[in-house]
């Protein structure tokens, strides 16, 4: 089991360029999440997908789009990158159970710099 | 607005010197509280989930406890390999669907020989 994998690990973009961050999980989890982590801000939710075929906005969705390609894969797209999107991006996944809450498991992150 | 606050921001300990990290949250109803460890350049690694006041979980030198308004992560006789940033996250009752988590900004722990 690789768990949650993310590509690329590092990326440098110029302002206005576009790119897609890829995430895949092999744990048969239903829910997937995209976060960004900035110094002093904590992890903030960008978008999430509670199940295959659904996506919803999180706390900071502006400037991003997502696609839940299938149960395994959840991608994050920056259509026109801005310096404010310089951050570390984490993907996470969670198995939905009938009762209680369940842990989110995180990938290794993508470090994005927008010049 | 639901908030999660962690203290201290940074903590330096000598090897073997026990201490506690704090995570407090606004009392709007908690569904679950999560502790993660994050090493530099890595993603958060799950440690514990706590659901109700009075609950405790242990793993090696770490013990997490929960009250109605805060959680503590106790570190007993820490070793240098315990050095990391410890993150606390809360799922509040009124976050609706999707199991959304609110994260604190973390406590950066350094354990020295």
Please describe the topology of this protein.
The complex is a heterodimer of chains A (115) and B (113).
Chain A: E1 4-7, E2 10-13, E3 19-25, E4 31-38, E5 42-49, E6 56-57, E7 64-68, E8 74-78, E9 87-94, E10 105-106, E11 110-114
Chain B: E1 4-7, E2 10-14, E3 19-25, E4 30-38, E5 45-50, E6 56-59, E7 62-66, E8 70-75, E9 84-92, E10 102-103, E11 107-112
* Overall form of chain A: globular
N-to-C terminal Cα separation of chain A, in Å?
Answer: 36 Å
Give me the number of helical elements of chain B.
0
The portion of residues assigned to helices of chain A is under 10%
- Give the radius of gyration of chain A: 14 Å
- H/E element sequence of chain A: EEEEEEEEEEE
> From the helix content, strand content and strand pairing of chain A, which structural class follows?
mainly beta
Average pLDDT metric of chain B: 92
* Total strand segments of chain B: 11
Low-confidence stretches of chain A: none
From the spread of the alpha carbons, the general shape of chain B counts as globular
Q: State the share of residues found in helices of chain B, binned by percent.
A: under 10%
- N-to-C SSE string of chain B, H for helix and E for strand: EEEEEEEEEEE
Largest interface: A-B, 25 and 25 residues
Question: Approximately what portion of the residues of chain B adopt beta-strand conformation?
Answer: over 45%
Radius of gyration of chain B: 14 Å
Please state the oligomeric state of the protein chains shown. heterodimer
